[in-house]
Amino acid sequence: MTIPPRLRRTLTLLTRDVSFLALGAPLHLFTGFLLFMIFGLGWEIIEGQDSSVPVVLGFALLLAVFSAPALTAAQRWRFRRLLGIDIPRPGWQRAQRQYGYHCLVGILLGGLEVLLLSLLLTGVAATTVYVWIWGVSWEWRADHPGYTTQAFYVTLAGLAALAAAPALATALVRLETYVGPGLLGPDPSEDLARRVVDLTESRDGIVDAADAERRRIERDLHDGAQQRLVSLALNLGLAKATLTDLPPEAREVIDAAHREAKDAIEELSSLVRGLHPAVLDELGLDAALSGLAARAPLPVRLRVDLPQDPSERVAPAVEAVAYFVVSEALTNVAKHARGASRAEVTVTRLGGILRVVIADDGAGGADSSRGTGLTGLAQRVRSVDGTFRMSSPVGGPTMMSVELPCPR
Amino acid sequence: MPEVRRAVIAEDSVLLRIGLVKVVEMAGFEVAAEAGDAPGLLAAVEEHRPDLAVVDVRMPPGFTDEGVRAALAIRQKWPSTAVLLLSQYVEERYAADLLAANTSGVGYLLKQRVADVEEFIEALRRVADGGTALDPQVVAQLLVRRSSDPLERLTAREREVLALMAEGRSNAGIAAGLVVSESAVAKHINNILAKLDLPRADADHRRVLAVLHFLGVGDQP
User: Fold this and answer.
1) d(C-alpha B7, C-alpha B128), whole Å
2) Number of Cβ pairs closer than 8 Å across A and B?
3) Which of A234, A293, A302 is facing B19, going by the closest CB pair?
4) Would you say the pTM of this structure is higher than 0.80?
């Protein structure tokens, strides 16, 4: 016999929900039982009947206090094992919420759980009324002549209860998952705060790792490929200078190779500069920026107002972003700013903020929402919690302003 | 017959060192010693007292500015040895340090300039003769720093001439670089000196000093 998939699913869910609720009931009602005992014993003390009562009361109170962590652990296990909801370990600092759960919410939930389980059991019993009724003594049946009609109604009621049970069980489980984790687990806002700290740290780590990687690539290119290229260009230059008696075709080939080699060096240098130039680490932002400004294809006025003392240098990650911003901005000015005849770069530090402003006198109309250059720039600024602003009205001038936090 | 001038070469990349030796020999120097790091260079200079030291800036063990510091030490201890620094990148602040200590017989070029053999040989000789050879990029950086003042009064051509003067070139060198006559160069130079209020000096070297000083590096001429 095959079970239809839908029914199978309902049955699986019902099994899960019922196990969850059946496990919950004793856990929830345990504290209820304890509280009932405590009140009862308290009442007995007021009545003043038995001298051993205070000892029992104290024991019950201690049990109520110290059972809470075990109950919480059991509840967490119940949630994880049956529903796959992982509630983080709350610790003692969240005690009052846990007691609230175990002594108030839990008891109410326990009551509902008992009701639902009884509904289910009653449903089963009522539906199977024709089976067990044969176990009842024949005198009873003889005394109740209309029992088959009654049993028919009982069966109907049982079927109705069984049909309602899965939905009710699901609803109760949902109620528990809504209430439980919040009270049993750590405070969600604490959780969020911890997550923010974690994310900030991991992001800083990623930014640093990316910088380190750029530095490594820069060094590898400098010490490897670039040295070889310079050596190649030098040898070609020597050939050009010494082999003067070669046929003109051969000289032309050497000439072309020499030029190619020099162009390759130039391209490699500009690639390296875009990555993370060594001068940035060795001499700082000011020196690295003057190199950039000098190489720009249009006149750049550079004003850098930073403390000269190396101990007051801003964090390397921030320096790298500032450098990248100026590098990209000047490239953009050269490429896209129509009619720009000059650019101005100003770097200042005001307290904990490093401010980089790049302005040009071009025709304006730059749109930061288009073009990956500006998007990448804004992303890199955001990676160190900086802000990126750009104003470029049609007709110019264009001004880009970046502020990077740099705590001392 | 004039005495053959001697040179010492400090460069950690063996490949490049071999090439450098060839070029320096082509320029008419005898290579007295080769070194792979700064202490080796200083020992070689002390031993051979060469006329010229060709020094890579980035050398072991730190791979930062060992060459610059060695160059400063050489200029101070053995002033008769001219120093030509080669670097992967040029930085005006190093140039300022070098020129502040002693302005004659100093060169500071991008490493890749060695590929232009003839110009490089010219620079080697100029530095060994007590002149200056500054990389065009260093000069460009110096100009960036001073873009707000009397420089604005110069014409584009005059700025080009000024840059070439700052590199340490002679009138003939400037004329060849710009493909103009030497008399035109002389006229430009007169205009520049007048506009910038610089003293007229006949010797190339003193003129370079005046220009560099104007650009913010080096001694008072």
Assistant:
1) 9
2) 102
3) A234
4) no
